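re: that complex we talked abt at group meeting.

here r the seqs, copy pasted straight from the sheet so there may be weird spacing, ignore it
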Amino acid sequence: MQAGARDKAMAVTGLILRASVYITLALPAVIVVISSFTAGESLRFPPEGFSLKWYKAAVNSEPFMTSLWVSVRLACISTVLSLLIGLPAAFALDRYAFRGKELFRTLALSPLVVPMVVLGLGLLQFMAWLGWNQTFWSLLTGHVLITLPYVVRTLTAGFFMFDKRLEQAAMNLRATPWTVLRRITLPLLAPSVISAGVFAFVASFGNITISVFLGFGGETTLPVQIFTYVEHSYDPILAAVSTLVIVVTLTVIAIVEKFSGMDNIV
Amino acid sequence: MNKTPGTPAAQSLQSAQAGADSAEIVVFLADLRKSYGNFDAVKDFTLNIHKGELVCLLGPSGCGKTTTLRMIAGFIEPTSGRIEISGQDVSLLPPYKRDTGMVFQSYALFPHMSVEANVAFGLENLGIAPDKRKNRVLEMLQLVELEHLAGRYPKELSGGQQQRVALARALALHPAVLLLDEPFSNLDAQLRIRLREELRKLIGRVNITTIFVTHDQEEALMLSDRIVVMRNGGIEQIGTPEDIYENPGTRFVAEFIGNCSLLQGMVKDGVFTSETGLSIPAPGRKDGNCLLVLRPEYIRPASGKALGQRYAGLVESSDYYGSLTRIMLSVGRDSFLLEAHFPPGTRPRKGDRLELEIDPHGVRFVEA
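got the structure back, here u go
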């Protein structure tokens, strides 16, 4: 009886704990979304009235829209590049034994460990030395660097879980290495590749530190734009822009989820 | 096969040669070796496999049987030696250029493809036209009686069905040799026995040369035309199941395949005397130290008419298996294993005294 009561107490505590974690995680976003619909002139919670006027303002604001476009472009290109580099890297890490393999692995994952500010400063100096300073290329390089660890990590896990006997079975069925890659390895790794891509996209899209250091010629990324905007004004357009960002991100994730939700894959 | 009595080794050599004369060689392995550093996973492996033959590589885990199979399939490169399939040297060819069909222990069905697509995969790689391919897939699925599941995915199938798909997939290419890697180890005991029977029929029907690897001696005895017993990377004995069971060439084979009683001793003037003084006639055996091997069927409780000498012993253990009772009997310090059926109520118990007789036809000797 006593054990029963204790179990019950544990269950209730667990429920409260879980609920509070979820609420804490979701609350900031929820507050931002709700306040974006305010009819008032200042950003506060709860909002005053309801209107879409700040959305209109956001869509019509050139700095925000330009920087949104920069961010989307940057995130897409760095995701693709990161996958193109990360896929062979993860493959090599998984399949081959070579000298300095652990060093290579650590190096690929190091941008996660090195403080972003240090990385940004280092890159800034390096890019200046290269003469690439203040260009899209330097920004792109920085973003590929910070997305690469996510890609390599996710893909090495994917490769590790991959049953290599399937490749042998395919080879036994007269498939050339290229056919094995195209029809067995890549399709089965697709979920890993997609989640690696999502991680990379989100890491790039939300990054601010690297973008501050490597930003170029007036064109900035959306997070930097929001950050600088907050310095001189604090109006609900920020909430509207943030909500748009949330919607875009969730849509991307939902589409990817639906697209890759192949239950047939173990 | 040649059945002239002789030493087991000579006999297995004879049967190997008799086979060589009668049929075309499909797989030829010459002095195959695979070393990892100083360790020889497989060594001095020479074997001919003839058309339509079902050969089993049998041995405990780590004996090199799977390594050998994987070398034939091309997944492991031999350190030295030669592999020929249908007369072609394939030692250095990649797996996809070898005419083998393999069924993996885990079946390795492609999880993202339907049963039909799994079976069609190899045919596509061979560039077989779609209509012809479709027919062949259907034919294969009919062969394994799975045509009604063509659209299913592997994870929707039972273990036995998965095995049959793997088999259909391998056979669809009409390979020169079928390779089976512990095909029954993932199935429960009941199913294993049923599928074993099915597999034997199926292989008989398509009459394909087959090499299979197992550590289960019962499986090997029941399925094979010829058994290759392996130990520590080398071949211990090659022979028909009957050869291997009835005339084990070494102590290892005697103990690994089936049950037996082993008596250490020496032969002098046609009589074997065990270390503890028990004597058993051994006509024709050369003098010297040796080990007497006796299968349990050749030992029986003494009855009315005497077969030969009788030995009185003490029952050490008596295990009832229904159709038979397995008894460990000690005679002096030697112990004998016998299996017999006793009428109800007469089964000896531990501690009983029992007289036993040895059928002289069943006495075998191996080097000590």
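couple things i noticed - The longest strand of chain B covers residues 25-36. The interface with chain A takes residues 73-75, 94-97, 100-102, 104, 106, 108-112, 121-122, 125-126, 153, 155, 169-170, 173 of chain B (CB under 8 Å).
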